[in-house]
Specification:
The complex is a heterodimer of chains A (651) and B (343). In chain A, helix 1 packs parallel to helix 4, helix 2 crosses helix 3 (73-86) and helix 5 packs parallel to helix 13. Helices cover 27% and strands 24% of the residues of chain A. Chain A has 651 residues and is of the alpha/beta class. The N and C termini of chain B lie far apart (52 Å). Classes of the chains: A alpha/beta (651), B alpha/beta (343). The A-B interface holds A 130, 583-586, 588-596, 598, 604, 607, 625, 627-629, 637-639, 642 and B 99-101, 232-235, 237, 244, 246, 248-249, 253, 256, 258-260, 280, 327-328, 330-333.
Chain lengths: 651, 343
Amino acid sequence: MSEKRTGVFVCHCGNNIAATVDVKKVAETMAQEGTVAFSKDYVYMCSDPGQSSVIEAIKEHRLDSVVVSCCSPNLHEGTFRENAERAGISGFTCEIANIREQCAWVHKDRTEATEKAIKISRSAIRRVAGNKKLDPIAVPVTRRAMVIGGGIAGIQAALDMANAGLDVVLVEKLATIGGHILQLSETFPTLDCSQCILSPKMVEVSRHPKIKLLTYSEVKEVSGSVGNFEVKILKKPTFVDAETCKLCDDCAQVCPQVVSNEHDLGLTARRAIHIPFAQAIPASYTLDEEACLGLNPIRCGKCKDVCEAGAINYDMRPETITENVGAIVVATGFDLYPQEKILEYGAGNVADVLDGLQFERLCSASGPTQGHVKRPSDRTEPKEVVFIQCVGSRDPAQHCAYCSKICCMYTAKHARLYKHHVPDGKAYVFYIDIRSGGKNYEEFVQRAMEEDETVYLRGRVSKLHRTKDGKVRVMGVDTLTGQNVEIDADMVVLALAMQPSQGTADAARTLKIGRDKDGFLAEAHPKLKPVESVTGGIYLAGCAQGPKDIPETVSQASAAASKVLALLSKPTLSHAPTIATVRNSHCTGCEMCVTACPYDAIHLENGKAVVNEVLCEGCGSCSATCLRAAISVRNTSPMQVHEMIEACLSL
Amino acid sequence: MINVQDIRDTARDLLAKGEVRAVIGWRAGSRGMAAEPCVVTKPEEADSLVWDPTCYHNLALQLVNDRKDLVHSKKTATAPIGIVAKGCDARAIVVLLQEHYFKREDVYIIGVSCENSGVLDERKVKAQVGGFAPSAAAFDGDNFSVKTAKGDKKLAGREVMADRCLECRTPFPKENNTAFGDDKTGREFDAQFAALARFEANDEAARWEFWQRQFDRCIRCFACRSVCPMCFCDECVVDSIEMKIAPETTAEEKANRIRWIERSAVRSENATYHMTRALHLAGRCVDCGECERVCPVNIPLRLLNTKMEREAREAFGFDPGASIGGPSLVASFRDDDPGEFIR
Ligand SMILES: Cc1cc2nc3c(=O)[nH]c(=O)nc-3n(C[C@H](O)[C@H](O)[C@H](O)COP(=O)(O)OP(=O)(O)OC[C@H]3O[C@@H](n4cnc5c(N)ncnc54)[C@H](O)[C@@H]3O)c2cc1C
Ligand code: SF4
Ligand code: SF4
Ligand code: SF4
Ligand code: SF4
Ligand code: SF4
């Protein structure tokens, strides 16, 4: 043992660690360990002087291994392993002892915390004594990327990557790309028309030689790992050949099947054969199989008869497409919290109580009323409209605990749009407080109040119901005056919470990536890795990760794109060599490890387990499962774990 | 009621036709009333097979031994091996198949149902017959009759049946190629886990005191491990001095061999041994009760193993030995697995 020369570096992390842990004592105690040749403490180990001192100490004291007692290895394992390499020893002989998140931050008693920090550090020292010098494994990468979800987030990410020269596959569940923006009328804070900002980008996607667009498609299966994913996609049949379709609308004219139009959120109807909206990309009609009378000339067949271009083909079948990509961006967007769940506001059963997206459609020139604000029940112009904020948001007891972030802004926008359409109308907004952080956002809200004379009432609406004379009675309080307020409105618009889309839940399951407590996709680190998922090679963009407006969505999409570009910039990736290895003599071939491995990295050959070194992430599940101690992860061998446990249990 | 001649005829027939290379079964023992395991390789030996309430042994262990012999002698089997299996033996075979220890087509299972009986607990019998060791036992559908030096004696089934049999719900070997006797699956003398429930009525301090006493008494003879068909590993992780050295074993592996516990039979090491074993049997132990039966110092090992079984049943609906295809308890993970116990 005496030849081992480990260096221990204890970080104060300013006061983050030093306030609770006696770092000097930790450093001094560690110096007594048999294998430790050098030990010191420093105020910020990760600072430039801190890092330099690690490198110098390795050289000066001929250290062969390093333990840094600091924050979580998630943050600085990479940093210090790189320092070790720079000082000329293997990065894999450096281990982190987490005395911040797992010690200083969760304890109050200084003596006890110090004792625990000593044990954590000691266990890392014992572990590192068994660490081997390892070389990273080079893995060839597939230099293509996939984007799942064709909203503004997905479009932006796909364009950024394609413009940088990467081949991109864009997979969209619906028959057209565009996402929710296409349903919006004008957008805050500039009130420019949403179609005008999005359509050019959609066209660019369809024309881009580097983008392969798969609409009406869903990801069904993903295997492989960072650098080399194999994705199986199911493309549903549209029964219309996009190339031949001339967009003449003859088919829709004759189709007898009328169903509610999802693009207009049920405010209008469409036929079974339809185009989602005029600017759809790909520009083609789609036959909705569920609404059709039966895809059969005997049952109906009118559309096929009338199509002069011969674009309609009832024999199209679902297709499974396999794509190999090196990285995936998930941009599967949001849904509105269902109105049915808001019992106090009529659960969607009170006429002229709309959600925000329906109101956008009413204001939109391409919407059901050609941009004239008319209430759905009798198509009259509403003269008094009540907007209610935070519906379903910030209500941990019954609905969503979080703030949906954009509703304050779009409600102000709605009030303004309404006043622009109906100048003699009256707009009321019920709010809890107004969150208008963002460039030009506060000014936008001020204008809603001052220029457009919107009445802002601070308080909650307790309930609403339809009156005999066709109004919606809104009962609330104004907490600033302390008075009850009752308004007989012509129309009510609910700013419903944003929730992760159903497609986001599905994608998370298929890709095996985590979601947070509210169901949004979980980022690898809330501050430092906001666009990375926990799984290497899978990135996040847009509202699938959390509520956002367009500027933020676009920024995040470009950030995800740049991460992918960086990842795929070299022909090979280096893969950590800390992977599982099998002791053949002890393996009985029971396959428990095969079942346990979350990365499908193990298979059996001649009755013995074999690990695929590219797929293995070194998670240790197999090692924890194997009853025979026949499989273990390099640099986390059972012997090392044993030593670590012993170090923790000893006084 | 099973006519033992049926079992013999089947074995003879299979051997004569060469459909099996041997039949593992029980024959009359050389010690007292207990039958003993045997391997019959010739048709004319088939008549030595017996089936009575002293067929305690879990014969799945003989399958494990057979497989080890094959591997170590580097022979390949010419034909499947036959085995007479009662309910618990068959459950053990299912776990071995689930863990790919051999293939289903490598074994021919001649199932025998315990019907409304089970096996005797010799300790209970001795207590009932005043310490005399009986020389033979039979079952008549309700009662056991045993021969002792003082003449024949009838004993009520409930009084002398092994605890595991009182709690057994699957006395019929569901996994079989052919089976004799009625399927009494679901029969109930004692509630399942009854012995465990009786023990757990004690408070924590009393339970810990009890186990300390038990762990003090264990002499680490490893009979429990040797008799267990699930303890088939070539090298057990608790062995501190033995290590199977294969040609490819490196010096470093030898030096780094795992020394989880010491060989000495002291309380702390014994406790570690038993807890390690119980954990390694979680989801695998089929409650054949063999370990408890063979323990020379009467340590109630079923209490440990059925505890694990009940936990797995309650938390994950897991039933060891019920199906070959399903994943093992410790290796499987479902999104809806309960997690309340993780703190
Ligand atoms: C009423 C309202 C008004 C708004 N007004 C404004 C505004 O004025 N200004 C502003 O900046 N922001 C506004 N927003 C916010 C804006 O709509 C969002 O920021 C933006 O749409 C988010 O884009 P996205 O691409 O993340 O999600 P989405 O637009 O939801 O796009 C997601 C896409 O992914 C697809 N998809 C989902 N699941 C899958 C799957 N499994 N596989 C394949 N494809 C899938 C969907 O079909 C969809 O096309 C408003 C929002 C609302 C609700
Ligand atoms: S769990 Fe262990 S014994 Fe079973 S196959 Fe895997 S390595 Fe081999
Ligand atoms: S450590 Fe084991 S379980 Fe984890 S990825 Fe590697 S092989 Fe799979
Ligand atoms: S445990 Fe069940 S199958 Fe086994 S001997 Fe007893 S009754 Fe028969
Ligand atoms: S642990 Fe005991 S009861 Fe369980 S299978 Fe092994 S020998 Fe039978
Ligand atoms: S429990 Fe009994 S059988 Fe097992 S090792 Fe101890 S003394 Fe031996």
